[in-house]
Specification:
The complex is a heterodimer.
Chain A (H helix, E strand, L loop, with lengths): L4 E8 L8 H12 L4 H22 L1 E8 L3 E8 L7 H4 L9 H5 L7 H7 L3 E7 L3 E9 L2
Antiparallel strand pairs in A: 1-2, 2-3, 3-5, 4-5
Helix pairs in contact in A: 1-2, 2-5
Chain B lengths: L2 H8 L2 E4 L10 E3 L3 H7 L5 E4 L4 H10 L3 E4 L7 H10 L3 E3 L4 H8 L4
Parallel strand pairs in B: 2-3, 3-4, 4-5
Antiparallel strand pairs in B: 1-5
Classes of the chains: A alpha+beta, B alpha/beta.
Amino acid sequence: MGEYLNFHYDVDGENFVSAGQASVELKKTLRRLGLPPETIRRLSIAMYEGEINMVIHAGGGEADVDIYEDKIVIVLKDHGPGIADIALAMQEGYSTATEGVRSLGFGAGMGLPNMKRYTDEMQIDSTVGEGTTVTMTVYLS
Amino acid sequence: MTVKELSDSFGFSVLTMPEPEREVRGGYAGDLLSWVMGRAEADQVWITIMSNVNTLAVASLSDVSAVLLAEGVTLEPALIETAEQKGINVLRSGDSAFRLAALLGPAV
């Protein structure tokens, strides 16, 4: 089944306030494509959590969204510090976010768990000191 | 019940109501944004004291029918404009989140 749409987003690591722009753009795009509201919601939240993670932990990064006939694949790539213990990072409530980030309402340790919750498949490839790539897939039934 | 009916019934202040006819189906209370994104459901009214720009992003992405700011918390004028542009209903009350949840629980 051939790929028919790709969207690329740069996530600005310096601007916490504008974090979410890529997710909002994606949401608009998915609406235009006429996807079911719950699918749009799942993908938009997963994307937003990924964006926030890149801003909080990695100084930004990039996101690629590939839209196929039967699935949507989001690849988030950063060159941040990497994740030393992925199993620990996946635990709800575990966070290394700073107090400043927490005061904005983030840092609850729910980012990665939410990304997993709202997608059908999630793969984390991370090397300490080099960066992290998160690949999320949602199947369209 | 629509957002407008909810607001009128309980006498909430309206900071912006671009979509008054949206249906409210249940509610969620919480201030940790990722927790809200993980637990709140579409069309719920979201009770919170968190009122920054990220609150609006979470409201939009989670597809809640309205944000209800508790404890007299308000939004900066620029953010009220943002909410209006994004079609996010934002209401406000002087009551606590606990009190608001108790009030709205039977109604929605």
